[in-house]
Every structure is written in C-alpha cells, then in structure tokens.
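Example S7 (structure tokens).
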C-alpha cells in the first residue's frame, strides 16, 4: 500500500503540523528494516503520544525529525531485546 503524507503536531499550536512524506517514510523503512505500513503505524503511535502530551511536539522541522528518529531507534531497540 502506498502511503500518503502523515502529519505530526508541531509545538502546542494544533494548526502547525509537520508532514512526513512518502519519501521520508520509505527512508525510515529502509533504515530500520520495516515495511512502509509499519512505519505509518509507528508514526501514528508517535502522533498519539504527542497529542497525549507524553512526547512534546517540537517547534521546528529539524527537531521534529530528531524526535521521529529517536522514536524509531527506541522502538527498534526494544524489538531487538525481545520486549
């Protein structure tokens, strides 16, 4: 399934969002050995964490990308440990 842009909130202003493009989704899939569907699922989980206030939305696109990378690195490490 080809994915569309997925949007993550930026800062506490719900009108500002960061679009995770299909190209970025494919890059994440390659980097972490996942399918694009799995990447979409993880980005959805990250969005829920941001909306719940567990993960703080960032004010810039670069910081948002860092949060995405950290989320995937931590979830990938957790899977490797068998948790």
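Recovered sequence:
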């Amino acid at each position: 399934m080809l994915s569309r842009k997925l949007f993550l909130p930026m800062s506490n202003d719900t009108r500002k969002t960061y679009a995770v493009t299909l190209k970025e989704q494919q890059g994440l899939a390659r980097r972490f050995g996942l399918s694009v569907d799995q990447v979409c699922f993880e980005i959805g989980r990250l969005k829920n964490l941001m909306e719940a206030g567990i993960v703080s939305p960032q004010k810039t696109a670069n910081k948002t990308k860092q949060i995405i990378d950290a989320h995937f690195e931590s979830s990938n490490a957790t899977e490797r440990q068998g948790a």
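Notes on this example. Helices lie at 22-32, 36-52, 61-80.
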